[in-house]
Each structure stands twice: as C-alpha cells, then as structure tokens.
Amino acid sequence: MMDNSSTLHLALPAVHTAASATAPPSLAQPRAFSTSVNPLVFFSILDHYLRRNAGQDRVIGTLLGVRSEDGSEVEIKGCYPVPHLETEDQVEVDMEYHRTMFELHKQVNPKEVIVGWYATGAALNSYSALIHDFYQKEVSSFPAVHLTMDTALTNERLGVKTYISAPVGITSKADNCMFIPIPCDVKYFKAERAGLELLANAKSTESGPTSLLSDMDNLEQSVIEVQKMLERVSEYVDSVLAGTIPANNTVGRYLMDTVSVVPKVDAAEFEKMFNSHLQDLLMVIYLANMTRTQLAVAKRLEKLM
C-alpha cells in the first residue's frame, strides 16, 4: 500500500512461496528475448553500492534504455539509484524520488524509457518479487527486466544476471511470480573499448594504477593484435586443409568476403605507404610538442614583463 508521503510500503505476506524463486532450465525464457547492457551501467551500480548508507546490505535503482518494436530486445543504456529501506517486515521505496529523477532524465534523453530495475547481490530475496511488481506497472505492457550484480565478487566475477517474471499460481498476487533468466551481453562502442581495456590492464598489474598509452604505443599494440588475428586465421585454414578439423561453410564464406575487400598491394609498395604515413604522424606529434613548448615559453615571458 502507499501512504501520503509518496513512499511505497510493500509488506511481506504471511506466506510467500515464489517471491525469490527462479525458473529451472526447462522453463527458461526462449532465446528470442534478450538484453544488452552498456558498460556505464555497471560502473553506476558499483558507484551506488560504494556510496550506500552504513548497515545497508544492498541497493536498488531504475534501469533506462530502449526496446525493439516487438519488445523482444532491450538495450539498457543508463540507470539511477532509488532510495529504499528494507526491514524484516516490509520494504519502502521512495516513489517521489524515482519519478522526479525520471522526469529530469527525459529532458536530456527523451527516447529512453524505464525498462526495469537493478539490485546488488548474487541471489534474489523475499522482497524482489514485490519490488518487481512495482516496476512491472511502470513499464506497462512490456515485461520489466531485473538485473542483479554480485558486488561480493564471488569467484572473482561480478556475476551479472538478468531476469523477467512470470506469474504462477491461481490467484494474481505481487509475490506469486517466478523469475526467469534471460540472455544478457555487454554492448559497447569502439571509443569505450579503449577504456575497458585500460581497466583490464590496471587489474592485471601489481601496482594497480595505469596510464594512457601514447599514439605510438597504441599503433604498436594494434599492429600486434592484427598480426595475432592473422596467425589464428592462418592456423585455422591450415588445419582445415590438413583435415584435422572439419570445414565450416559459414566461416569460409566470411573469410572469403573479408579477403575480397582487401586491395591487392605489393609488399614493397605497402611498406612505402606505411612508412610515409608513419612519418606524417611523427611530424604532427613534433609540431604539436613544439607548439606546446612555445606557448609555455610565451606564458613565462608574460609573467616576467
């Protein structure tokens, strides 16, 4: 029920059997329904968890994104935290804060809508079904997506999972539902990939902090990665020709299409073009450093005068 303070009070029923239940593999959602998550969503959830109040076990928030026309594909692009309080008897959700934040978000991103909610923790608890029922009403006719993140890093993984709910039982109650796992993948742009790789490198180093790579280091790393990919493709083709692994027609057509778009350039001519481009890049770096030095000298001369 809801009182006059615009806070949603969800009391735990006397008997609840399916509030935190998940569907067995035989009842899993068809692969037609899937979700994709932007990496910024994960960082926002972790930031919310780190800033939680003392004694608070988990945090929740609203997921924002876009849906396909038939509603089978959901792309989660953003989120924002929602204050809530859980006790042994009930859970309170600040609806006024939730709606105010959504109205402000619509002014910046009018195309994004509410697609579900998130919660930290590896497992569903007794209040998950009650909170999910509230968000199900917010998304109207489409199924609301519930995203969980294991902030305890069990098995050294975040353990991100997504669910939708399905009603169970004869009576229609908020807690009479079962959570069904759905496929989830991470969708990022090329510009975001550099940041994710930088974070991965920082995790692998002993000291922790890391710095951005220079243009030359990025170029060298890109060339090394391309060389490794070419070696893997060459090993695959040699194995198919030798008969050690079966041929895959789909992979063969993809390789043929990839090779056909590569222009035929003589090795000596390609090396000449590459060195010319490299010299141009070095010249730009040299001019930029010279300009930076001249500006620094001019600034110091102004102070002396």
From TrEMBL:
Q: Which domain of life is it from?
A: Eukaryota
What interactions and quaternary structure are annotated?
Component of the eukaryotic translation initiation factor 3 (eIF-3) complex.
Keyword annotations for this protein, in alphabetical order, are: Cytoplasm, Initiation factor, Protein biosynthesis
> Sorted alphabetically, which PROSITE patterns does this protein's record hold?
MPN (PS50249)
* Protein task: Component of the eukaryotic translation initiation factor 3 (eIF-3) complex, which is involved in protein synthesis of a specialized repertoire of mRNAs and, together with other initiation factors, stimulates binding of mRNA and methionyl-tRNAi to the 40S ribosome. The eIF-3 complex specifically targets and initiates translation of a subset of mRNAs involved in cell proliferation.
The record's similarity note reads: Belongs to the eIF-3 subunit F family.
> One MF term from GO for this chain?
translation initiation factor activity
Does the keyword GTP-binding belong to this entry? no
Predominant location category: cytoplasm
From the Swiss-Prot or TrEMBL record, state where the protein is found.
Cytoplasm
The family database entries (PANTHER family) matched by this protein are listed as: EUKARYOTIC TRANSLATION INITIATION FACTOR 3 SUBUNIT F, EUKARYOTIC TRANSLATION INITIATION FACTOR 3 SUBUNIT F-RELATED
What would be one Gene Ontology cellular-component term for the protein?
A: eukaryotic 43S preinitiation complex
**Protein name (Swiss-Prot/TrEMBL):** Eukaryotic translation initiation factor 3 subunit F
Annotated organism of origin:
Linnemannia elongata AG-77
GO biological process terms held by the UniProt record: formation of cytoplasmic translation initiation complex
| Residue span(s) of domain MPN | 35-169
Lineage, top ranks? Eukaryota, Fungi, Fungi incertae sedis, Mucoromycota, Mortierellomycotina
